[in-house]
Amino acid sequence: MNCDLLDILLDGVEPCFIAFLFAYRYRAMGSTGYTCIRRTFCSFNILIWLCGSGFLAIGVWLHFAYPGYATLLPDHAVLSADCMFITVGVISFVIAFFGCCGSWFQSRCFLVIYFTLVVLLFLSEFLLGSLAFVFRGGIGRMLTQELKYGIEKHYNVSDRGGFLTPSVASIWDNLQVDLQCCGVSSYEDWYDISAWPGERWVPQSCCRSQYGSMFSEGSGDELANVDCRKAGNPALLWDKSCGQILQMWFVQRLHIVGTVVLVIGFLQLFGLISSMLLFCTVKHKRSSKTYKSYSPTVDTTLNRNGTSATYMDD
Questions:
Q1: Which residues contact 218 (CB under 8 A, 6 or more apart)?
Q2: 217 phi, psi to nearest 5 deg
Q3: What share of the chain is helix, strand, coil (3-state, %, to 5)?
Q4: Would the keyword Cell division turn up in this protein's UniProt record (predicted)?
C-alpha cells in the first residue's frame, strides 16, 4: 500500500496502519496454509513410503523363508501371502515416491503423476471389490478346489521342512492342530492323495487330541491298538473343516475389514485433495509477486518503494 504525506496529514496514520496490518495478515495466512498443506502432504507420503518399504521387505522375506505357502494354491501362487505383500509394497513405494518428490520439489509433473496413480488405484480397488462381490461364490469354489489340489499333490509326510522354511505338510498340520479342523471341506479331502494313494487315511493332525496317533480300544483279550489316522472313524477326528473355521473367523472380523477399507479410502481421498491443492497453488506461488518464498529458509527479499522486507516460510 502507498500512503502519501497528504493522506497522513488529512486522515492520520491509523487507516494506513490498519490496511497494512490486514495486508500482512492476509499474506501470512496464505503462506502458512500453503506451507501446512505442503509439509503435511510430504510427511504423509514419507510415512506411506516407509510402510510400503516394510511391506516389500516382509514379502521378500516370506518368499524366501516360507516357499511352502505358494504351493497351497499351486495354480494361483500370485494369491499367496508373499506375492500380496510384495504387490502392496511396490505400489505404495512408487506412489509415495512421486508424492514426496512432488511436494518437496514443488513439481507439478510429479503431482499430476501422483494424482493419476491414486485415481487408477482407487478405480482398480473398486473394480476388483465389485467383481469379488459379484463372483464371490465362484471365487470361493475356486479357492476350495485349489486347496484340495495342493493337499492331493504336494502333501508329503516325510518332508517336514525347517523352522524357517516349513513344507506344505508342516503348514497344514500346524493349521489343523491350531484351528482343530480337518480338511478343506471335510476329512474326506485327505482320502486317496499322492502321499497314500488308494487309502482312506488322514494325517495325525486330524485326530482329536485325546486320541493322538495310537490308542487302545476294547478290553481284556479284545484290547487292540488302533491307529487314529487309519481307523476310518469320523468320531475320532475333528468335526469341523478348516474352510468353515476360516470363514467363521473372517465373518467375526468383518468390522475390522470395514474399518481398514474406510481408513484406506480416507487416506486416498486426502492424497487426491492435497495433491490437487498443491498443483493449483504451485503455479500461483511461482508467478505471484507477493509470495516469493515457500522454502524452510529465507528465499528472497522484497523491495517495495525503497523499503526492504524479508519473508520466511512458516
A1: 224
A2: -135, 140
A3: 65, 5, 25
A4: no
Angle, vertex CA 56, rays to CA 55 and CA 59, nearest 5:
85
Burial readout 108-132 (b: 16 or more C-beta within 10 A, e: otherwise) = eebbebbbebbeebbeeeeeeeeee
At 226, is the secondary structure helix, strand, or coil?
strand
Rounded to two decimals, the pTM is 0.65
Can you tell me the distance from the alpha carbon of 79 to that of 73, in angstroms, rounded to the nearest whole number?
8
Q: What is the pLDDT of residues 210-241, one digit of tens each?
A: 766 554 454 444 434 567 888 778 888 888 89
Distance CA 185, CA 181 (A): 10
Rounded to whole angstroms, how far apart are CA atoms 71 and 146?
9
Contacts of 176 (CB under 8 A, 6+ apart): 182, 203, 205, 206, 238, 242
Q: Which amino acid type is present at position 105?
A: F
Of the chain, the percentage scoring pLDDT greater than 70 comes to: 67
